[in-house]
Amino acid sequence: MSTPLLSARGLALSYHCGAPPVFTGVDLAVRPREIVALVGESGCGKSSLLGLLGGLASPSAGAIHFRGTPVQRTPGEVAVVFQDPCLLPWLSVEGNAGFGLGFRRLGLPRAARRARVAAALADVGLAEHARRYPHQLSGGMAQRLALARALGRQPALILLDEPFSALDAITREAMQALLTELVHRRASAALLVTHDIDEALRVSDRVLLMGGRPAGIVGEWGLLGVLGPAPRARHTPRILDLRGEILDALTRHRTSQVPVHSVSARPASYRLPLDPLAISETP
Length: 283
Ligand SMILES: Nc1ncnc2c1ncn2[C@@H]1O[C@H](COP(=O)(O)OP(=O)(O)OP(=O)(O)O)[C@@H](O)[C@H]1O
Fold this sequence. Notes:
Pfam families: ABC_tran
Family: Belongs to the ABC transporter superfamily.
Bound molecules: adenosine-5'-triphosphate
Keywords: ATP-binding, Nucleotide-binding, Transport
InterPro entries: AAA+_ATPase, ABC_transporter-like_ATP-bd, ABC_transporter-like_CS, ABC_transporter_ATP-bind, P-loop_NTPase
CATH topology of the largest domain: Rossmann fold
Number of helices: 8
Domain ABC transporter: 8-237
Number of strands: 10
CATH class of the largest domain: Alpha Beta
Largest sheet: 6 strands, mixed
């Protein structure tokens, strides 16, 4: 098996000295060309874990390795995409896509920067909107631009924190297909934090479930051999079985005390809400 691009061993995080840890003992790995989905109940620590992996905070314990080497700072080969596209309103689409590429430490000549931005905007279908400004974009376009900004760095690994959760269902599916296509074509890898088990089953090669208190990785499902390559059709019988399995595991490893109603009587056509545990059973 190939060396993981990114791996974590025994990661723990407490936000304050003496506070109970949000998670402990987290081991995970993301391999080249792999899309891994991280799912779990709201508040269990998914974003906090992604923040550690993306270098936005330091762990209380444990180690992060990149290409097998321990790292203190997240390398430039890792890019992060947040739920909020975080665009700079005074910069054009082109300017936002290239933001950061001009940093001196990257040493990128102007022509190379322009080529990267053009390629990234073409990849996400925004080439013809390069001169627009963020207020002239739809939510889906803004999210594609955030993805283009990450792609411009030509990352080996993209960390995504619920990047599509604010989009309508059709745009979300288009973005999911785009993400899988880009990861496969650019031979990179992705770790996707999502509330949405359907999304995890549609786009990922492997699902990790975070849960418990303090949280940890409590379940893992390899999808590639079972469901074939992503993106996948919705609601095939095997996907529905797996969705039930993951939801049951999620319920067993709950973090919070939000009441949960029976999941067994749910019809096959039941549509998961964004937070699968915030279920109010209307007849
Ligand atoms: N900066 C912070 N300071 C203190 N506590 C924090 C901070 N950020 C998050 N937390 C706490 O850490 C826990 C995990 O939060 P986190 O946002 O990582 O969960 P999550 O699984 O991503 O949630 P959601 O799915 O709702 O986004 C929560 O109890 C939260 O209140």
